[in-house]
Amino acid sequence: MITGKTRLFGVIADPIHHVRAPQMLNPLFLDWGVDAVLVPFHVPPGRLADAVAGFKAFPNLGGFAVTIPHKESMHALCDDLDQTARRVGAVNCVRREPDGRLIGAMFDGSGFIAGMRAHGFEPRGQKTLLLGAGGAAAAIAFALADEGVARLVIANRTISKAQDMAARVAAAVPGVPVAAGPADPAGFDLIINATSVGLKAGDPPPLDPDRLDPASLVAEIIMDPEMTPLLAAAKARGCRIHFGRPMLAEQLKLIGSFMMGT
Ligand code: ATR
C-alpha cells in the first residue's frame, strides 16, 4: 500500500516505455520489507536539468535509476560521484541525500560481474576480449580489471576509442595488462559483447564465429533478443554462453541498496 510515508524512487529515460526497473525493483522492495515505490519518469534530454532541480526539492525522493540517454549528462549534474562513476564518466543511479545533494554511482560493471558469478562463471584470471568502447563497455572494462582478469583486450569499431579506454583502464588498475586490439576471439577464455550489435534483427555477429574456441565463454550485455546472433553462433561452436539479463537483475539489487543508503 502506498501511503504518505512511502519513499519515492524513480527511473529516468527517454523513451520510457521499455524500462524494466519498476517491475524488477518494486518486488525487491517488497522482499526487503521497505516502504518504497519506484515509478517511471519520462525525462526528455532537453529537460534533464529541470527534472533534476525538481528532484532536489522533494524530501521524500530517495533516488533514481538513470538510463538512455541520460547516463553521461547526469554525471555532470551530480553533486558527488562514487569512484566508479568518476572513472567511467557516466552514472546509472543517483541517491538523494537528506540535504538534497545528489550522489551518482555506476553499477553496469559490478552488475555484469555479479551476473556472471550468479551463473557460476568467474572472471578472475581469464584472458578476456571485450567488444565495444561505449559507456557500458567502459564500466565493464574497469570492473574486469579490478577483478583481476589475466589480460584485457578491447576491440571497437572506432579504434581510437578502444585505445583511449585501454589507456584509462591501464592507468587506473596497474598490474593488469590492458590493450586495444582486433575483434579476434582466438586464444581468449572470455569474450564479452558490449556493443549494440545484435540489438536489431538481422545484425551480424560482431566477430568471426569461426575464430571462436569451443572452450571459451561468450557473454552478452544485450537482453532483447535474449539469444543474439553472437550467442547463437557461439552455442553452435560448442562454447558456453552467458545471457545479458543477469547483468540487469544483479545490478538492480546493487542500485536498490545504493539508493536506500544501505
Ligand atoms: P552504451 O552506453 O550502451 O555502451 P554507446 O556508448 O553508444 O552505448 O556504445 C555503443 C557501442 O557499440 C560502441 O562501442 C560502438 O562502436 P563505436 O565506438 O565505433 O561507435 C558499438 N557499435 C554500435 N554500432 C556498431 C556497429 N554497427 N558495428 C560495430 N560496433 C558498433
How are the elements arranged and paired?
Blueprint: E1 7-13, H1 21-32, E2 36-42, H2 48-57, E3 61-66, H3 71-77, E4 80-81, H4 83-88, E5 93-96, E6 102-105, H5 108-118, E7 127-131, H6 135-146, E8 151-155, H7 159-172, E9 178-180, E10 190-193, E11 217-220, H8 229-237, E12 240-242, H9 245-260
Parallel strand pairs: 1-2, 1-3, 4-6, 7-8, 7-10, 8-9, 10-11, 11-12
Antiparallel strand pairs: 3-5, 5-6
Helix pairs in contact: 1-9, 5-6, 5-9, 6-7
This protein binds 2'-monophosphoadenosine-5'-diphosphate.
2'-monophosphoadenosine-5'-diphosphate binds at residues 132-137, 156-158, 161, 195-197.
* Helix percentage: 25-40%
SSE class: alpha/beta
Mean pLDDT: 95
- Heterogens: 2'-monophosphoadenosine-5'-diphosphate
The profile of the biggest β sheet is: 6 strands, mixed
Instruction: State which percent range the strand residues make up.
Output: 15-25%
Distance, first to last CA:
22 Å
How many separate helices? 9
Could you name the ranges where pLDDT drops below 50 across 5 or more consecutive residues? none
Backbone CA Rg: 19 Å
Tally the beta strands: 12
Q: Order of strands across the widest beta sheet?
A: 2-1-3-5-6-4
> What is the helix/strand order?
EHEHEHEHEEHEHEHEEEHEH
The 3D shape can be described as globular
Name its key features.
single chain; 262 residues; alpha/beta; six-stranded mixed sheet; six-stranded parallel sheet; globular; binds 2'-monophosphoadenosine-5'-diphosphate
